[in-house]
TrEMBL record:
GO molecular function annotations of the record: lipid binding
N-terminal signal peptide: none
Biological process terms in GO annotation: ubiquinone biosynthetic process
Domain COQ9 C-terminal: 128-194
Cited InterPro entries: COQ9_C (IPR013718), Ubiq_biosynth_COQ9 (IPR012762)
Name listed for the protein in its UniProt record: COQ9 family protein
Length: 206
């Protein structure tokens, strides 16, 4: 149920803008992220850990706070992925996704509670653009240069995979080998579908 909603949201918003970025906002996020898994994502907690005026940095409240944190994760992933040495795009996508999950593993509880903030009814549009932005960041980190229809198709396809893997990671993220195997199965299924589609198209044009 949740997975279907998340995937649908991401696929429906494939060209999102981005939240405000600043060194001050990043510093506040670094203060609250380590405690959010236990204390939650709220302006009261933000003030307690980042200062009494920290709420002024996030005028949209907890939703603004969570969206900014997800964007911070995206930016960190892109930066770290610059060191990847893998010639094949499909393998780079796989490596980027696993790298992302490994880096945020210590904040898995905070990630779960952040998603809960965006799953509240009426916030679907924020969830949509947040997930879509993350999927786009994965492709960017992997070095994708697609344009036009291919750009949208790739992101719609990866959105479904990312949501499935993300939910699996939230449930079993303490076993990254199992997460990697689950991701490989999802990627293999898409690859099989792609090959089948190519064969059908070739048959029609023969």
């Amino acid at each position: 149920m949740i997975g279907t909603r998340m995937a649908g949201c991401a696929a429906a918003c494939l060209a999102p803008g981005r939240p405000e970025r600043s060194a001050a906002r990043d510093a506040a996020l670094e203060c609250i992220a380590p405690v959010a898994g236990r204390a939650g994502w709220s302006i009261a907690i933000l003030r307690a850990v980042a200062g009494p005026d920290a709420d002024l940095l996030f005028p949209g409240g907890a939703v603004d706070l969570v969206e900014a944190w997800f964007d911070r994760i995206d930016r960190d992933m892109i930066e770290v992925a610059r060191d990847l040495d893998e010639p094949r795009l499909s393998r780079r996508v796989r490596a980027v996704m696993l790298l992302r999950l490994e880096r945020i593993a210590p904040d898995r509880a905070a990630f779960r509670r952040a998603l809960a903030v965006l799953l509240v009814p009426g916030r679907g549009h924020v969830l949509a653009r947040t997930l879509a932005r993350s999927v786009d960041a994965i492709w960017e980190a992997a070095g994708d240069r697609a344009e036009g229809t291919a750009w949208y198709t790739k992101r719609a396809t990866l959105a479904a995979i990312y949501v499935q893997v993300l939910l699996f990671w939230l449930a079993r993220g303490d076993d990254m080998a199992a997460v990697a195997a689950f991701l490989d199965r999802r990627l293999a299924r898409v690859a099989r579908f792609g090959r089948m589609k190519q064969r059908l198209l070739s048959g029609r044009t023969a």
